[in-house]
């Protein structure tokens, strides 16, 4: 489930629950936990943002990211 964390102001995926806190993760591996009142369901745009970040992270970690050529 993708949620928006109001305290960090970014979307993340729920990975579980730790007592009274919700465990979250971002595509690059950042993990943290927040109280349930700090999150809300992500909007369609926020879910797209998280998917785009995951795709970018995948490309960068495979070493296939190509830099734009510099102008002459």
Written account of the structure:
The chain is an alpha+beta fold and about 70 residues long. It contains one helix and five strands. The protein has a five-stranded antiparallel β-sheet with strand order 4-3-2-1-5. Strand 3 (about 20-25) and strand 4 (about 30-35) form a beta hairpin. The longest helix is centred in the C-terminal third of the chain and has 19 residues, at about 45-60. The protein is globular. The model has no long low-confidence stretch (mean pLDDT about 90).
Roughly how much helix do the residues carry, as a percent range?
25-40%
- Total DSSP helices: 1
Largest sheet: 5 strands, antiparallel
Spatial shape: globular
Q: Mean pLDDT, as a whole number?
A: 90
Into how many domains do the coordinates divide?
Answer: 1
Rounded to an integer in angstroms, the radius of gyration calculated over CA atoms is 15 Å
Provide the low-confidence segments as ranges. none
Strands ordered across the widest β-sheet:
4-3-2-1-5
SSE pattern, N- to C-terminal: EEEEEH
Please provide the count of β strands.
5
- Content-based structural category: alpha+beta
Distance between the termini: 47 Å
Strand content: 25-35%
């Amino acid at each position: 489930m993708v949620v928006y964390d109001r305290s960090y102001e970014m979307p993340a995926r729920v990975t579980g629950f730790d007592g009274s806190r919700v465990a979250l993760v971002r595509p690059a591996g950042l993990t943290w936990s927040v109280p349930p009142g700090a999150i809300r369901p992500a909007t369609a745009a926020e879910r797209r943002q998280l998917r785009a970040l995951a795709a970018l992270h995948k490309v960068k970690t495979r070493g296939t990211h190509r830099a734009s050529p510099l102008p002459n």
